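pinging the channel bc i need a second pair of eyes. not urgent but kinda urgent?? the chain im working w is below, pasted from the shared doc
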Amino acid sequence: MPLRIAVLPGDGIGAEVTAQAMKVIATIAECFHHEIVMREYPVGGVALETHGSPLPEETLSACQASDAVLFGAVGSPEHDDNPPPLKPEAALIQLRFRLGTFANLRPAVMHPALVACSPLRPERVQGTDILIVRELTGGLYTGDPRGIDATPRGRRGINTMAYDEGEIERIARIAFQFARQRRKKLTSVDKANMLEVSQLWREVVAHVSADYPDVEVEHLLVDNCAMQLVRRPRDFDVILTENIFGDILSEEVAAVLGSIGLLPSASIGDGVSLYEPVHGSAPDIRGKNLANPIGAIGSVALMFRYAFDLHREADHIESAIWRVLDRGYRTPDIARDGTPVSTEEMGDLICREIRQVARESSR
């Protein structure tokens, strides 16, 4: 049976980086003789303009019927004043819920050739290898009640952070399982000194940790974790945290590495998994062929690893990315030195390296 991928390019640079990711998928299919069917569907601001909804039913149905979803980015300034259900970003929240993707994996690895891109001193950042495991369907982004109400003192905004024990336990077990496969260290991040929901989070994580005695566990308050990620990023292995904390901390880690354009992600759970770069739609550089496609291409590697269980193919993609960076090619966001290239050129270079790696491995 062919592997079926629903491709949702979305807004801004989403279409540009997704096009390079699709080239990589096609190259892997060619090198390893896989039959892969990719079909594109509208989402976000593009879908609002053509279908009146950020997540048309046709798009959702196609995602649910696929083996994996490749997502670009959503968000466009012309829709900033829309009510929440009609914002482009609502598509992503709905899609996560409908696909059951409650665990977001965000690996962040410092490539030796990019140490100079980090704002931190080389001796502080080199060797950084972090996996952020972010709970994706609970917390402030989805809790009720929410909204803006009228009061005698003026308008009041309300958002609710809520988690139940089952939600915390299922994401904690995923994080512990990944920690077992890595360096056996897990940092659980919360705000237990101020928030009851974090007190429950810490209690449940501590309870789950008893089933993983081989994993070292530390609990950090989110503000302290943010500081420690700058002071000692190499000390972290797996970071487990809730939705909004994970969103913020992963972008801090991206800054530590030098560019958010480098970070891939995988959203996994009970159904079809979803793969997307961590960055947003970046409307300021849309259409300029400047975006870094490595986050999107790295997300394809995660797709082959977790959705298709094709680890050799995933390894080839990741190896090709590193080889291109070793050769000194740089998109503008990481162009401290080396040879500057465009979005398309970076995609072509990585595809060329995939073919070379495939030839070498077949000898």
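so The domain at 119-257 is CATH 3.40.718.10 (Isopropylmalate Dehydrogenase). and DSSP finds twelve helices and 14 strands in the chain. — does that match what u expected or am i reading it wrong
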